[in-house]
Structures are given as C-alpha cells and as structure tokens.
Amino acid sequence: METGLIPAIVDCDPGTDDAIALFLALASMDVRLVTVSGGNVPLDRTLANARAVVGLAGKPVPVVAGADRPLLGHHRAETAVHGADGLGGVVLPDGPPVTPGVAADAIRALLRDAAPRSVAAIALAPPTNLALALATEPALAGRLSGISIMAGAWGEGNWTPSAEYNAAMDPEALAMLLEADVPITLVTLDLTAQALITPAVLAALPRDGACARAARAILGAVPPSRRFDHAGFALHDPCAVAAVIAPAMFGFRQAAVRVDTGDGAARGRTHIDRWGRTAHAAKIRMAETLDAPRFFAMLADALQRLP
Question: Which DSSP category does 222 fall into?
C-alpha cells in the first residue's frame, strides 16, 4: 500500500531508547519489518519488548528474531541503564506473536521485492542482523536508500573509554556495513549528547494515550548520566530515526570511518576522520549537530499521533 511515508526496516534491541525510537518510527514511517537482536538485554527480552511496543502502537508490523550474539565473541548486556528487563522495570502489555523466521532471511526477502534504493534501514543495535543479510547477498544493498546507524563516537565511548556500546558489541558487523555499497549515515554519541532528556524535557512530553504514557514511564526510569553531571541522559536511538525522516534538523559532514576490530583496549573504537587527515575515502555522512528543540517537538508530535 502506498502511504507517502518512507519504507523502513528497523533493527533494534529494546532497550529504553530503542523503545522510544520504535515509537517514533512507527508513527512517522512505513515500517515494514522490525528485526531484533540480543544487545541491551538478551534476545528473549529484547524480542518481547519490541513486540510490546509494536502492539501498543497498533501497527501490523512483523517482528522477527535475529542474532542472540555478535559474529565473534559473546553477548554482554547493559543493565545499568536499561534494567534487567530492558525497559527499566516498566511493564507493557504483551505484543503480537513473533513472526516465524530469522531476521537476516526476513531482511533479504523484503529487499528482494523492493524497488532500487527505496527502503531505509535503521540500525539501533549491534548491527549483526543487517551485516549477515548483506554479507550473504551483497546485491541487495542496491535496494536500500541508505542505512542510518546509531554507533560509535569520535570522542570517548560509553562502554569502554574507547568504544560506544553497539560498536563494541560487534565491531566486525559494523565494519561490514560501513563497507557496503549503500549510503551510510552515522549517528554517534557526540551527536546524541545534544538530545539530552532533562526533567524539563520529560515534563513537556504528551501525557495522553497509551504510547505517550509508556514513553514517559520508560524515560522516567532511566537514571541520569554521570557524563552530563546527572542533569539528564542522552536519547541515542531516536536520533538515528530522526536523521532519516527529518534530515534538515541535522548538520552533516562527510568523513572517513574505520572500526578497530583488534583484541586490545581499543576494540570497537570508531576512528573518525572528519578533516581529511588520512588517505581513506570520506564516504560516511556524519551527523554532527542537532536542532534539539525541533527534535523533541517532533518526538512529542509522533507520540500524540499514536494510540
């Protein structure tokens, strides 16, 4: 069905900020597939959380399970921010049943039926599912209009001093996506720090409707960050959705990006050359600045349009 909205695949690991990103995407895009990996919490929880968000939003979107671990190594959860259940203890009604299948297969099947450069992919998790899909059928990259990835940092990380969580969890998968034949937008910690949820921002979000109430409860459960002197916390994943649906509120720069896939302390670090200091091609569109008031106004509007 033609909706006039951007067709999209959302790959996620809910996770508090993933849940808000899913609400934003479901309200603002033609989401055709939600794929889920283990990440912020193990796969059984991320899958249940994704189903719950999709169900609460009332959207008939298939939710498909994917990788429960990175291409190499083991899964490691981030419960200090997201809680053991991934949603900070907020209980949502159970969502629709999981759609049978495997995420990488579902991504490939959707793209095979898509027109060239017609579907946006949004990577909000360790990017294992998308990397597996494109590595096993590289020609399908030509069906994607782009991939918006929340990962990495040009400054310090939030999982190790060197690395952001999604990049650190599966640097091999991120390296594969960055080399794919598809336009890449990278949304890093340095950008998402500009989307700061403070008590005032939270108080201004809508209060009516099941999705708005759930979003407020989830955001209210996230502890303030030491990185921001406990003034609030960065809303990471919705920025990667916003970069697709409202790019005019961002400032971008082309950059060369490489990922450290070694075994040392810098594993998962994104080496980002924004100033042409290396010989590597500046093929990645970096989101550098964000109009935060417009961003939060867009999020509020999206929540108001959901049930």
Answer: S
Q: How many residues are present in the chain?
A: 307
Q: Tens of pLDDT along 174-188? A: 999 999 999 999 999
Residue 208 Cα to chain centre, angstroms? 25
Element (H, E) at 148: strand 144-150
Neighbours of 294 (CB within 10 A): 14
The residues facing 97 across adjacent strands are none
Catalogue the active-site residues: 236
- Judged by DSSP in three states, 31 sits in strand
Q: How far apart are CA 72 and CA 171, in angstroms?
A: 9
Domain limits of the chain?
7-304
pTM for this structure? 0.97
CATH numeric code, 7-304: 3.90.245.10
30-67 pLDDT, tens per residue?
999 999 999 989 999 999 999 999 999 999 999 999 99
